[in-house]
């Protein structure tokens, strides 16, 4: 199930500031703007009638200022507060009121997204959206996958998506497109301007640079063992050390690949991780 957006109210006495903040918040799916106010009294009435989850609150308002609005609200209708101001001198007072964040104008989207992350982390544990978001955020940071894509994955029965290609689309000698699963690739080596992509039974020759091809593959799976060679670590059967910190990787079927000294540390880390 998709995360339920948190209800937000924007309070600012400048219509252009309200519009700019609303347009940016509309780009953040975790937040839904449900109302706007231009003074402190309106803000209090909206909080009492709509009970929003978040209040994006300017400090300089006609009548009650932003801090006085928070002080006037009862605890049972007090939303999470993000102060939005053109001045930084009231930040200490704001955080003494347990504000979630203090954002300086003009507000950009990246800064707002960080505020929303703080909001979701503070969100009530009884609403599993906050906990779910934290888990998705952690998974996204470790995998490089967008949170929106992870949410779609949760609704499906598919394997966990990845930020890297699961298939390479290459052309054979008849110029037909072949969808080659990356897990079937044993190793890749360079031959001039071409890459030789080796599977158990075939070798595909592709015109592409090593750097560009490497960026399409998961670096946790495909490790460089030479300036012109990548190997699928899941295909390594044994590691045979040589002199001068070099070694030989045995992939089976009489395939042996030499690890140059400059890349030996990568293989050593893999070996250490597999030791029991």
Describe this structure in words.
- The chain is α/β, with parallel strands linked by helices and 276 residues long.
- The chain folds into 2 domains: 6-123, 3-Layer(aba) Sandwich (Rossmann fold), CATH 3.40.50.2300; 167-274, LytTr DNA-binding domain (OB fold (Dihydrolipoamide Acetyltransferase, E2P), Beta Barrel).
- The protein is 33% helix and 28% strand.
- The protein has 9 helices and 15 strands.
- The chain has helices at 15-25, 40-50, 66-72, 91-96, 109-122, 128-143, 147-154, 210-215, 264-274; strands at 6-11, 31-37, 54-58, 80-85, 101-104, 167-171, 177-181, 187-191, 194-198, 203-206, 222-226, 229-232, 238-241, 247-252, 255-259.
- The strands form 4 sheets. Strands 2-1-3-4-5 form a 5-stranded parallel beta sheet. Strands 10-9-8-12-11 form a 5-stranded antiparallel beta sheet.
- Helix 2 runs parallel beside helix 3 (66-72) and helix 5 (109-122) crosses helix 6.
- It starts with 5 loop residues before the first strand and ends with a helix.
- What CATH architecture of the largest domain would you give? 3-Layer(aba) Sandwich
Shape: elongated
User: Which range best describes the helical content: under 10%, 10-25%, 25-40%, 40-55%, 55-70% or over 70%?
Assistant: 25-40%
The CATH superfamily of the largest domain is known as: Response regulator
CATH top level of the largest domain is Alpha Beta
